[in-house]
Design goal:
Strand order of the largest sheet: 1-2-3-6-5-4
Order of helices and strands: HEEEEEEH
Shape: globular
Number of helices: 2
Largest sheet: 6 strands, antiparallel, barrel
Strand content: 35-45%
Structural class: mainly beta
Helix content: 10-25%
Number of strands: 6
Radius of gyration: 18 Å
Oligomer: single chain
Length: 109
């Protein structure tokens, strides 16, 4: 049972996008990632922010899987798969991406 003071309080709709930083749309086909098997898998980078990215690849992803992401000429970035669906995965970087690398990638897209 609701209290009188909260019964008629307006509730804002839930936010669909829970990201603290917006992702930039890119289309980088020079990306690849590596699993613990040490085999490179070609991937397309669909969008990116300093905290994470979305990949497309002919691969099956698993939530919680740790990958090493190679993009363009940047050093490999360690990321964790936080969601996946058919041929796509959303990854969170272990450490925030250098803003200069992000700038280069968004200009390359």
């Amino acid at each position: 049972m609701a209290l009188k003071s909260t019964r008629y309080r307006k509730v804002e709709p839930a936010a669909l996008n829970r990201r603290s930083v917006a992702r930039q749309r890119v289309k980088v086909s020079r990306a690849s990632f590596r699993r613990s098997s040490n085999r490179d898998i070609k991937a397309d980078l669909v969008d990116i922010s300093v905290y994470g990215c979305r990949l497309e690849a002919d691969a099956v992803f698993q939530e919680g899987e740790e990958i090493s992401l190679d993009v363009a000429s940047a050093d490999p970035v360690t990321a964790v798969v936080v969601w996946h669906k058919v041929k796509q995965a959303g990854c969170r970087f272990k450490e925030a991406l250098d803003p200069e690398i992000l700038r280069r990638l968004t200009l390359a897209g």
